[in-house]
Each structure stands twice: as structure tokens, then as C-alpha cells.
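Fill in residues.
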């Protein structure tokens, strides 16, 4: 742990927590504080500077919300950002670090509305434990070895049946590859398709986690703007990219659902371009009104869609289990490429999940969570209506585990600062934007509701409205 000695001017009109936040941020930006350095605890800093713990907590939370630091459970607060010799704005260089903060155990914030959280309190722990124990003692197959490079055969059979039933996708188990998360899926695709140095198109705003993977593989990213129907086709046509990454079921972060006509236009683009669509079916399990729309892969007649699925929202983030469905024409070469790699997901976890699905626990859990999240969604919408009134509108309704709150007036930075002071954490949409479009979305904030219970949702939104 390092020591800090900021000068705090108590006679200044600038709040003490702002002075402390700015001081620590400058120490990080200058390189005097380095990535991995542990900051003094809230209690230690408050005692050392003779200020209240709440003042320190608010300053620290602002650092966390901007990606300069992260709170590690039972360990403390650590610097995330490491100064680099670059002329790029600090927020750009933070994009990959920020993707970690949304999932860190942030004990400093009473009301955490950042996207990515789920309701673990409703998870059937007993059933999952039984499946784990059964898998551990199974003599039918070896769950303690390296496993199949593609993933557990029987789990891929269960996933193929689930995808056909729930998403209308007709695929064989041989087309499915088990991966250790969505970013791992994208990384495998980048290597398999050999797109390093090539153009890749993606939504703007779009998931920063995908953007980070493409950047790490030296891709040129063509940022394609959105309209009310999702990614716009005309600007995509002007791009030289032959691969586009989209989230049609619940666009992340803005939340719109891509209609059938737009999906068909996108499929037509892929056929004419001789390219591929990476369909990230994020949040597809949760829809609260309207008719369900099948996955784009389900209406893909030319085999131009590479489907990405994940269990992080519908099951548990901790199992780190996602999957790819590759086009039939690519299956053979994909399997040859994968044979060079060991399977990244524990065979024990895969076997246990296969049992969990086979015994009907998974389907039952999904049905239950639809009801749980629909109630939370209703509480959130009502709370926003009652506490924020005409000062904000809701964007991206009726699906997924987050909405976007768009301020009808006021200043986005001021709103976020107010939220921090109130002990409420929200995620600005701008962290998922390219630099040139951030101003368009500076009054938009992601409100995730999966992790909080109804009372916490009401209390958190009430604080935002004060």
C-alpha cells in the first residue's frame, strides 16, 4: 500500500471529495501511481486526512466509475490504469480496464446499477451442487482431464436442442464450440478468420469488450451508427469490412430490438459482400412484451451467420461458459484449427452443466428468472416514472437486464457526479462509444437491474431523483 499526501483546501468552493478525486487521478495519470498499486482504505485515508469516511468513499467511487481503480473483495482498492506514453485521451486508454470494473465486487456502492449483474439469490444452488458432485464421481467419462477441444459432446447435444427449441436455430453439435466467455469466442474467431490488420464493422455505440478484442488483434474498426432499428445498413455498405459484429436481440448498450426486415437486409449485405455476421445473442432469453423474434441465425439461408451465445446472464457468470455456432461450410476447418488448442472450460463444469440441462433444471431456472426479472423491470420503470418524471426518458424497453436512461435536460457529467454522491453507480453509454460520437450520448446512462432486488431498485432510483 502506498501513502498519499494531497493538499485539501477546505476554504475552496470545490468540494473536498472532488479535490481528493482529482489529486488521485492526477497521480495515476502522471505515472506516480502505477497499475496494481493498492490505495489506502477508506478508513485509513479518512483518518490520515482528518475527513469523513463518506467523503473518501465518494471520491473513490468516482475513480472506480471512471476506470482508474477497482475494488477487490476483501482486498481493497487498486489502481487499474497504468500511465503510458501516449497523446490519446485517458478515457480511450482505459476502455479495456473498464470492462473489468463492471464485474468487480464493489463494496463501496450501496446501489450498483452497472450492467452485467444477475440475481444469484434466485439460483438453484442445491440442484447445481448435486450435478457437480455427480460429475465429479462419474465413471462414464473422465471429467478430470483436458477434455475435447470443441467441448463436451453431450453438452453440445443439449445446447443444440436448446437452441432449436428457444431460438429456432437448426444446427448439429459438430457446429458448436464451447468457449470461456464472449471475448474468448471473439478471440478465437479473429484467429480462425485471420482478420488481423483487416477492417471489422461494429455498432456504435457497441460493446466495449468486443472493441477491445478487435483492437488487440490489430483490426481496423469501422464504427457504424445506429437508428431506432439497430445498425444502419447504408453506412455498413460503404465500409470495406467483410465481418460485422452485432447484438440484434437487445442491442448493447442502447437496447433496441432489430426487426425482421433489418435482419434480412443485413443477411443480404453478407451474401453480396461474401462476408460474415457475428450475431451476439446477448440477453435474448429475457423479453417482457411483444412477440419473440427468432435469432438471425435461424433465418440465415446462406450460412453467413456465426452465432455467439453465453450463459453469463441466464445461468452464472462464474462458470465462464459461452459457445459458438459456426456455419456448416466452416466446421471442418474450424475443428482442425481448434485441435491445436486445449479446451478452456473445465470438463467437470461442462459435464455438470450437461446434467443440469438434461435433468430439466436449466429450463425451469430460465422460466423462473423470466418472471423474476420481469417484476424487477416493472419496478424499475415505475420508480423512474415516479422519481424522475419528465427529466428523463427510458430507451431500450421490454427486453434484457438493463435499460438506458436518457436525460431530457441537464448535464450528464453533473448527473453522474450527483449519483456518486448519492451512493448510486450508473454506467455512462459514452464508454461504449467511439471518441467522435461520445457527445451525442453524453446524457445517456445504462441502468442494469439484474443484481438488485425490488427494494434496492426503488431506493436507488429515489436517490437519483432527489
Amino acid at each position: 500500500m502506498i501513502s498519499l499526501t494531497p493538499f485539501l483546501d477546505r476554504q475552496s468552493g470545490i468540494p473536498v471529495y472532488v479535490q481528493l478525486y482529482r489529486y488521485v487521478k492526477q497521480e495515476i495519470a502522471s505515472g506516480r501511481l502505477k497499475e496494481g498499486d493498492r490505495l489506502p482504505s477508506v478508513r485509513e485515508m479518512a483518518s490520515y486526512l482528518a475527513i469523513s469516511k463518506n467523503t473518501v468513499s465518494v471520491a473513490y467511487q468516482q475513480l472506480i466509475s471512471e476506470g482508474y481503480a477497482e475494488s477487490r473483495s476483501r482486498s481493497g482498492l487498486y489502481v487499474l490504469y497504468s500511465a503510458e506514453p501516449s497523446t490519446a485521451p485517458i478515457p480511450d486508454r482505459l476502455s479495456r480496464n473498464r470492462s473489468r470494473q463492471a464485474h468487480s465486487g464493489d463494496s463501496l456502492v450501496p446501489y450498483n446499477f452497472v450492467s452485467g449483474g444477475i440475481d444469484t439469490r434466485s439460483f438453484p444452488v442445491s440442484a447445481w451442487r448435486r450435478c457437480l458432485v455427480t460429475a465429479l464421481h462419474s465413471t462414464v467419462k473422465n471429467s478430470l482431464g483436458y477434455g475435447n477441444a470443441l467441448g463436451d459432446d453431450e453438452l453440445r447435444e443439449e445446447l443444440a436442442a436448446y437452441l432449436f427449441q428457444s431460438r429456432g436455430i437448426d444446427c448439429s453439435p459438430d457446429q458448436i464450440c464451447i468457449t470461456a466467455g464472449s471475448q474468448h469466442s471473439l478471440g478465437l474467431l479473429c484467429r480462425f478468420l485471420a482478420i488481423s490488420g483487416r477492417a471489422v464493422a461494429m455498432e456504435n455505440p457497441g460493446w466495449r469488450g468486443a472493441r477491445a478484442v478487435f483492437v488487440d488483434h490489430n483490426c481496423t474498426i469501422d464504427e457504424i451508427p445506429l437508428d431506432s432499428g439497430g445498425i444502419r445498413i447504408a453506412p455498413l455498405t460503404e465500409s470495406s469490412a467483410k465481418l460485422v459484429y452485432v447484438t440484434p436481440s437487445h442491442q448493447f448498450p442502447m437496447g433496441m430490438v432489430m426487426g425482421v426486415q433489418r435482419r434480412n437486409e443485413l443477411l443480404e449485405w453478407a451474401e453480396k459482400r461474401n462476408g460474415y455476421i457475428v450475431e451476439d445473442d446477448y440477453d435474448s432469453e429475457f423479453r417482457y412484451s411483444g412477440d419473440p423474434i427468432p435469432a438471425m441465425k435461424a433465418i440465415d439461408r446462406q450460412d453467413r451467420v456465426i452465432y455467439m451465445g453465453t450463459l453469463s446472464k441466464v445461468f452464472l457468470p462464474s462458470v465462464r461458459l459461452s459457445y459458438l455456432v459456426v456455419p456448416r461450410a466452416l466446421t471442418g476447418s474450424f475443428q482442425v484449427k481448434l485441435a491445436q488448442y486445449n479446451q478452456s472450460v473445465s470438463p467437470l463444469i461442462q459435464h455438470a452443466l450437461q446434467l443440469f440441462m438434461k435433468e430439466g433444471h436449466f429450463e425451469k431456472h430460465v422460466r423462473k428468472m423470466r418472471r423474476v426479472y420481469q417484476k424487477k423491470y416493472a419496478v424499475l420503470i415505475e420508480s423512474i416514472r415516479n422519481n424522475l418524471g419528465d427529466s428523463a426518458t427510458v430507451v431500450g424497453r421490454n427486453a434484457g437486464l438493463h435499460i438506458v436512461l436518457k436525460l431530457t435536460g441537464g448535464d450528464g457529467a453533473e448527473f453522474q457526479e450527483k449519483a456518486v454522491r448519492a451512493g448510486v453507480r450508473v454506467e455512462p453509454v459514452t464508454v461504449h462509444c467511439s471518441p467522435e460520437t461520445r457527445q451525442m450520448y453524453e446524457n445517456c446512462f445504462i441502468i442494469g437491474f439484474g443484481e438488485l432486488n425490488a427494494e434496492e431498485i426503488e431506493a436507488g432510483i429515489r436517490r437519483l431523483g432527489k
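The chain has three domains: 16-88, 125-359, 364-465.
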